[in-house]
Amino acid sequence: MASHDATDNKSQSQNDPDSLVNSMAISPSTEPSTHDLEKQEPPFQLTSPDDRALYSHFTKPQKRLIITLIAFAGLFSPLSSFIYFPAITSLASSLNVSVEKINLTITSYMVVAGLAPAVIGSMSDVTGRRFVYILTMGIYTAANVGLTVCNNWASLLVLRMVQSAGSAATIAIAYGVVSDIASPAERGSYVGAVLTGPNIAPATGPVMGGLLVQYASWRWIFGFLAIISGICMVLIIFFLQETSRFIVGNGSKPARGIHRTLLSYLLHPLPQHTQALPIESENDQPIPKKPSRIPNPLVSLRMLFFPDTILITLIYSVYYTTFSCIQASLSPLFIQIYGFTEFQAGLIYIPFGLGAALGSWLAGKVMDRDYRIVAAQHGITVDKARGDDLTKFPIEKARFRSVWWTIGISGASVVGYGWAVEKKTSPAIPLILQFIAGTTIAMTFNLNGTLLTDIHSKAPASAQAANNIVRCAMAAGGLALLQLILDHVGTGWCFTVFGGTMLGCLGLAWVEWRFGMGWRQKLKEAR
Description:
Elements: H1 36-39, E1 45-46, H2 60-74, H3 76-82, H4 88-95, H5 99-127, H6 129-149, H7 153-167, H8 170-181, H9 187-199, H10 201-215, H11 219-239, H12 262-267, E2 277-278, H13 298-303, H14 307-338, H15 342-347, H16 350-377, H17 395-399, H18 403-422, H19 428-455, H20 460-526
């Protein structure tokens, strides 16, 4: 994992395990003026004037631990979907209901996954990341325990919705954590590392689900999820430090209460105190005490009225819809056309999943490289330690510098995949195209998700929740129409439609690349 913390380490020895510093190096965000999170900087204190300008005071090992934990937590949302698919027939038989009713539990899961982050993401922007991670992982673990022993369809339906509520927001919160601890110049690598965990779920979930159903029972799917999510929750309680800049700043402000790790309580029962200096705002006036706030899910919806937000979200949603339809149709198509067994059909998810994991890693490297290139082109000196002023930096050109070829290759590979299956070529050909599509789709996800975080750096989890609402709604619509399209035009033309829509995102990306910075600056002037 890339980390650029040479300056971070110089005063870490003074801090307890939860010490954080605040220096909001990024200029005021482009959020609605009605939202308290966007109206003012947090009034934190620093241990010394030298620390004032540092973007993050976490050490390299601390950042690595934080990223590992949130990547682990982010695994559960996609894993809960993909590990469930092989159990559909077994569940229908065991609970004496139709497959259509079991499919309703998938639909309800997706509906909650689209709505829950709007509440939970806003909560994490207000109450802190650590508390919300503990809360959501607790809900998720409890839901899995209940699913392990459920005996009727109604309880399965309700508990799947609770399971979704507990896991759906973890990725949105993860973007918030990355924004907290990583300056814009290094943010790409951190996003890539965080999303590596969630992106391996499409490869591992169906295989694990198939093995558990075949050699144990469908109940062990939820038992397995309960065990590993319980382990994740314990690790979070012990080791995950609070990162929210509205609570602990960027390095040396000690955490209090629930925001402290259990490990820090064991090592330092009484919080350490440091001599503090007030942070000053840009006009050298003391920043007023922050008001009390309550989470507001409408913040996410308001963000969708910004032109740059909706453009990025539409690109992401088109790609997520295509991704969902590929995954939903993959197993049935290979069973029908190539005569694969159910276990073999589970294995064919591996190429796409491996490609997605590779794409996440590559996207991080590409984004950090593109950031440096664009900065050099505009005569800007990159400051990884203190962060760059994004109101004066063309971040859209940096994040979308490589989006042209990721969109082009991904769209072409999806079209090729559809026709390879239609023409019944060797299974190796569509699987290779799956790997290419997985790599470039994941890269496009990361480029768009990171840009959305950059634009909404003061409320990144709420911004990702807005993205989640649109992408889940579009994916649900796409999945509802998928079989109809396949039946009427065949696999080749079906995925030509999806691939062509992906290629159409080049126009949306160009508009954002060309006008995005101007929109941000006009909004700042209007405020």
